[in-house]
Amino acid sequence: MSQDLLQANAATPGDDLEDIALGEDYALTSEYVEMVVDAADRGDGMRLRDLLSALHPADVADLMGFLSQAHRSEVLPWVPPALLAETLPELDDGIREDILEEVTPGALAEALQELDSDDAAALVEDLDAERRREVLAAMPESERAVIESSLAYGEDTAGRLMQREVMAAPQFWTVGQTIDHMRAQGDDLPELFFDIYVVDPGFKPVGGVPVSHLLRARREVALSELMEPINEVAVDLDQEEVAYVFEKYHLISAPVVDQSGRLVGQITVDDIVNIIQEENQEDILALAGVSDAGRDAGVMDVVRSRFPWLAVNLGTALIASTVIALYRAEIEQLVALAVLMPIVASIGGNAGTQALAVAVRALSNRELNASNTLRVVSRELMVGLLNGVGVALLLGGATWLWFREPALSLTIGLAVIINLMAAALAGTLAPLLLDRMGRDPAVSSPVFVTWATDTIGFFSFLALAGLILL
Amino acid sequence: MSQDLLQANAATPGDDLEDIALGEDYALTSEYVEMVVDAADRGDGMRLRDLLSALHPADVADLMGFLSQAHRSEVLPWVPPALLAETLPELDDGIREDILEEVTPGALAEALQELDSDDAAALVEDLDAERRREVLAAMPESERAVIESSLAYGEDTAGRLMQREVMAAPQFWTVGQTIDHMRAQGDDLPELFFDIYVVDPGFKPVGGVPVSHLLRARREVALSELMEPINEVAVDLDQEEVAYVFEKYHLISAPVVDQSGRLVGQITVDDIVNIIQEENQEDILALAGVSDAGRDAGVMDVVRSRFPWLAVNLGTALIASTVIALYRAEIEQLVALAVLMPIVASIGGNAGTQALAVAVRALSNRELNASNTLRVVSRELMVGLLNGVGVALLLGGATWLWFREPALSLTIGLAVIINLMAAALAGTLAPLLLDRMGRDPAVSSPVFVTWATDTIGFFSFLALAGLILL
Q1: What is the rounded distance in angstroms from the CA atom of residue A195 to the CA atom of residue A268?
Q2: Dihedral (CA of B359, B363, B367, B373) sign
Q3: Is B206 exposed, middle or buried (0-12, 13-18, 19+ CB in 10 A)?
Q4: Cβ of A303 and B387 within 8 Å?
Q5: Which residues does B118 contact at the CB level (< 8 Å), separation at least 6?
Q6: A137 vs chain B: nearest CA distance in angstroms?
Q7: Across residues B178-186, what is the average pLDDT?
Q8: Is CATH 3.10.450.350 what the domain over B168-285 is classified as, yes or no?
Q9: How far is Cα A57 from Cα A50, in angstroms, rounded to an integer?
Q10: pLDDT value at position A10?
Q11: CATH number of B2-156: 1.25.60.10, 3.30.2130.10, 3.40.50.720, 1.20.1070.10?
């Protein structure tokens, strides 16, 4: 099938290539990737250039992710320079670093000038000190200054995210004056803007006018009549907070102000979409105990991103095992205890993970604060109790069918109820406490929750067995 | 402290209330929630109105989430009608259903007319058949028709997300004609728009002009000179795919077209931000085995959202236990096996969760397809092997320190290596296969991965023990 496609399309012009590049789900098709690999293997540069030129920068970046490092080096020289510049900000970090190393400082300096100041600064930041100096030296003074001042803001702050170009206007201007100004000053304006920021004589924003409102108004209307309240963003605000503000108030753009309240730049929602995606995916990975090694990471990078968590969990599992060791005599006497005890720990772990995911989600949506903590924690405890009773009935029944020993059913039932309540508490309180301490609740909670449910699971079951059964 | 705040602000006007409502992180403060609760308890309606009027609709929705049901009923009558209308789309589903029941059909019909057609349709959809009929009957013919035709599209499709109002212009218009048209037709245009869609005589989009480009151009320039290629969205495209297109191409708005390619509406990025957030959070919850019961869900709703998963896991844990039961004789002979076996299963479970989270993330970013599956799976296997060797050394060492029995160290080391490779396979292949079958990879994979790592963990350790030790 992919072979047929290859032949059918070998002679088609660039326009049709676009149609087969993307599937119905707008993702790059594996057939297209194979066509590129095939052309690279044949060393067919003309074909590579056709295949690449048919793609949007985001799809070129995607393609690079699908290629092996060897194929990437083969393909890279055939990416037209302007397309390469636009592709760089779209690439995964690891792949971008590789590619940046293969480009000369001069070519890179040229590529950077095609980009918005925020994207250019982000790229320069990734370079090592030596290369950064070379690349900046190859840029014109003014562009270099813009990038350097962007890098002066803390990583992951609004200052880094913002573009310095904004469309600002004094409030006494009319719609007509504003449009005339825009026509005259076109080059100094941001490439895209969605709001005009109305400023006072001290250049502090006092309101905003969506461009679609400006376009609908008559030329003689004053901006002060059209303007609406706006949400300012402080230049040192963390990007996660910036994303929250955009999401909450459905913003398309926001003015960024410095400590004295002066307008210094704008942030637009297209940059925020990436951050929301990143922050959410960090939570998914953090809850699973893995840092993102990137799609192109080598085996050793991936090992490094996962081993620490496994080592920590090994520690907690060993602690839980010392609890079992305390009850060796009981297990020797009744080996059914060894058969059943992992079930108590396992169900507890699952219930703890459920409570934890719900709490982490609520915290990241700012749905949990001092005013409802008590209500949420007591609800979780009730849920733990009720689920515990439900699981206890099922598990007690299964145990009876298996071992025909009612006291064993009672023991495991009680242990499950205790462990599911413990899981509810641990899964809710661990992220709450970490958040209160200013730490990321997704990062360290899972290890604590697993440790608690393992230890309490083994202990409650074996200790109760000692009391009830033996 | 919160008491001081209450008194200090009791007499301040609405403007200052706004300042204390939100914390530095732009989230509603617990102090403000307590001020509202306090006023509700005192039955102080005037105070409630002041407190509520100082808030943005998104913050009123947030406030409702923090209040108990009783307090919510107390507060509701004091929300000004226009503010209530804007608040409805922002509310959590469960809370919105409660509130919609307390509002009369007439009042609701009026509120709906203040909203965009997509928001209004989403609200009407939530009503039961009887109430939906009443509310639609109370609306003017034209608005009813808009809502009914929106509801005719499948749930979670572009058709549901879109607004029907668009700013379209034929390609032979000049900038001046377009602006004059917008000034004249103001009321029929969308409240906000960011691109002008250029259409052919068949009303099919042929390009787009960002408003900021239109504003910068001279009046005599033709739209055909300014227009850029645009990404169309089919009216029946799933919202997740729509979000992917927006995110990938950094879109601010996109035209929606019907089967014949005619322009029928527009989707703007502010609606997409919510969907990206929702889809990600669904993944977080699905991986933890919990469906979202909503922040306001009662205890029984939460139990129902979590019990099924616990019951399924109980089943898999029982299956894993039957493996242990096969080796009862070995455990009776050497009770250290019972002490150590949960460690092998637990580490395997952790490694499987890591691989699973990475695969689910890669799938949702469309980073995995036929062209790199083999590479990714073999990388995961290598990672499993190397992490397995690392953990085996640590755990073998710990076991030796504890039990002074080298053969036991060897047994557990080999078992861990086997289980970590199994975890890598299960954690990667389960989501890949589910995705290939068109199912959500986050939903059913975890149960399979846990079952595999538990069963293989116990089996490899106990069977090896039988071979090596006994």
Answers
A1: 10
A2: positive
A3: middle
A4: yes
A5: B150, B160, B161, B162, B163, B271
A6: 31
A7: 88
A8: no
A9: 14
A10: 39
A11: 1.25.60.10
Which tokens in the block code for residue B225?
Answer: 């000179």
Supply angle C-alpha B252, B255, B259, rounded to 5. 150
Mutate to test the interface with A, among B33, B343, B344, B449 (most CBs of A within 10 A): B343
A306 in B contact zone (CB under 8 Å):
yes
Asked if B212 and A194 come within 8 Å (Cβ–Cβ), the reply is: yes
Compare all CA atoms of chain A with the CA of B370 and give the residue at the minimum distance.
Answer: A30
Best to test chain B binding among A284, A356, A373 (most B CBs inside 10 Å)? A284
How many C-beta atoms lie closer than 10 Å to residue B73's C-beta? 14
A288: closest CA among B445, B366, B117, B418?
B445
> What is the rounded (10 degree) CA torsion for A46, A50, A51, A55?
150
Asked if A114 is an interface residue toward chain B (Cβ–Cβ < 8 A), one would say no
Is-contact A38 A6, C-beta < 8 A? yes
A445 at the B interface (CB within 8 A)? no
Count CB atoms within 10 A of the CB of residue B225: 11
**Residues B252/B253/B259/B261 CA torsion (nearest 10 deg):** -100
- Give B-chain residues touching A211 at CB under 8 angstroms: 194, 211-212, 215
> B342-381 burial, b if ≥16 CB within 10 A, otherwise e?
bbbbbbbbbbbbbbbbbbbbbbbbbbbbebbeeebbebbb
Locate the chain A residue with the closest alpha carbon to B372.
A66
A387 shares contact with chain B (CB less than 8 Å): yes
Task: Provide the pLDDT confidence category of residue B15 given band limits of 50, 70 and 90.
Answer: low
Confidence band for A63, pLDDT divided at 50, 70 and 90: very high
Residue ranges covered by each domain of chain A: 2-157, 168-286, 299-468
Strand partners, B293: none
User: Of B29, B343, B367, which is closest to A321 when you measure between CB atoms?
Assistant: B343
CA distance A277 to A284: 11
Q: Which residues of B touch A161 (CB under 8 A)?
A: none
B299-468 and B2-156 share a CATH fold: no
**Nearest residue in B to A249, CA atom:** B58
Q: Which two tokens stand for residue A218?
A: 């008559």
CA B123 to chain A, closest CA, distance in angstroms equals 18
Say yes or no for a CB contact (<8 Å) between A252 and B192: yes
Tens of pLDDT, residues A452-464: 999 999 999 999 9
User: Which strands sit side by side in the sheet containing A263-268, from one edge to the other?
Assistant: A233-234, A253-257, A263-268
Chain B residue with minimum CA distance to A268: B252
pLDDT digit string (tens) for B349-401? 999 999 999 999 899 888 888 888 998 999 999 999 999 999 999 999 999 99
In angstroms, the CA B198 to CA B169 distance is 5
Does residue B158 belong to the interface with chain A, where contact is any CB pair within 8 Å?
no
If one looks up domain A168-286 in CATH, what number appears?
3.10.580.10
Contact criterion met (CB below 8 Å) for B276 and B255: no
Nearest beta carbon to residue B310 from set A342, A350, A367:
A350
> B469 by DSSP, 3-state: which?
coil
**Residues near B231 by beta carbon (within 8 Å), at least 6 away in sequence:** B245, B249, B251, B254
B288 pLDDT above the threshold of 50: yes
Average pLDDT, chain A: 89
| Region B299-468: CATH code | 1.10.357.20
Q: Topology of A2-157 in CATH?
A: MgtE N-terminal fold (1.25.60)
Contacts of B66 in chain A (CB under 8 A): 367, 369, 371-372
Contact A269 B270 (CB under 8 A): yes
